[in-house]
Design a protein that fits this description.
The protein has helices spanning about 1-10, 115, 135-140, 170-175, 180-225, 230-234; strands at about 20-25, 30, 50-55, 60, 75, 85, 100, 120-125, 130, 155. It is of the alpha/beta class. The protein has a six-stranded mixed sheet, with no helix packed on it. Strands 4-6 form a two-stranded parallel sheet. It is elongated, with a radius of gyration of 33 Å. The relative contact order is 0.07. Keywords: Leucine-rich repeat, Membrane, Repeat, Signal, Transmembrane, Transmembrane helix.
Length: about 230
């Protein structure tokens, strides 16, 4: 009976993952999972965690709803991992309360803007092999980036070679607009598609007219070859 009473008395979510260390900081729970050789985000992080450090591990992906149960989470450190993919709903459930999010020093080339623009947290995105494109530009313009790390968001790849190796902010300050480039590309593609359809319609009309003309000529020749009514009468 004492054992079952103990189970009932222990609040759910208060246990600590075996690979982590849980401590109290000014009355707030901190879950420390740094340098634990983790390859994915632990499933049993306490629900009352306020600070969560997952830095210096081997995590490669942040799946949807990875932190949804952590409604009290304020600081999340995912720096120095091997993160390559971040799902659109990766931070769903923590967007309102999260104050800082560190994704620096990973392998992130691109990120769905929906994953970050819903956050009010201060973001650190430095030292990733970014592909400079419209989505990243929108994140830079609309998200709350840590001003101390903005200059370290550099273009690892880009539509033009001259942008490679330069800070994204510097490229944008020079007047480059990746979103307008994408829009122009879409406009050109749409124009080519419409021109193709228009050409097909013209060709079809020409073929239709020629075919009808040939049928009319054949029909006329056939009528000429028939004996006339006057000849039969004589």
């Amino acid at each position: 009976q004492a054992f079952f009473c103990l189970l009932l008395c222990v609040p759910w979510g208060s246990s600590c993952p075996p690979s982590c260390q849980c401590t109290e900081r000014a009355g707030a729970k901190a879950v420390l999972c740094s340098s634990r050789h983790l390859e994915e985000i632990p499933k049993d992080i306490p629900r009352d965690a306020v600070f969560l450090k997952l830095d210096a591990n081997s995590i490669t992906r942040i799946p949807s709803n990875a932190f949804r149960h952590l409604s009290r989470l304020e600081e999340l450190d995912l720096s120095r991992n091997a993160i390559e993919k971040i799902d659109r709903a990766a931070f769903k459930g923590v967007a309102a309360g999260l104050r800082t999010l560190d994704l620096s020093s990973n392998r992130i080339r691109s990120i769905p803007k929906e994953a970050l623009l819903a956050l009010n947290a201060k973001l650190r995105l430095a030292n990733n092999p970014w592909h400079c494109e419209c989505a990243l530009q929108e994140v830079l313009w609309e998200a709350r980036l840590d001003p101390d790390s903005v200059q370290d968001i550099t273009c690892h790849t880009a539509p033009r070679q001259e942008y490679v190796g330069k800070p994204l902010l510097q490229v944008l300050d020079a007047g480059v607009n990746f979103c307008s480039v994408r829009q122009r590309t879409m406009d050109v593609a749409m124009f080519i598609t419409m021109f193709g359809w228009f050409t097909m319609v013209i060709v079809y009309v020409i073929c239709y007219v020629r075919h009808n003309r040939e049928d009319a000529c054949k029909h006329g020749d056939h009528l000429k070859s028939l004996p006339s009514t006057q000849g039969h009468a004589e």
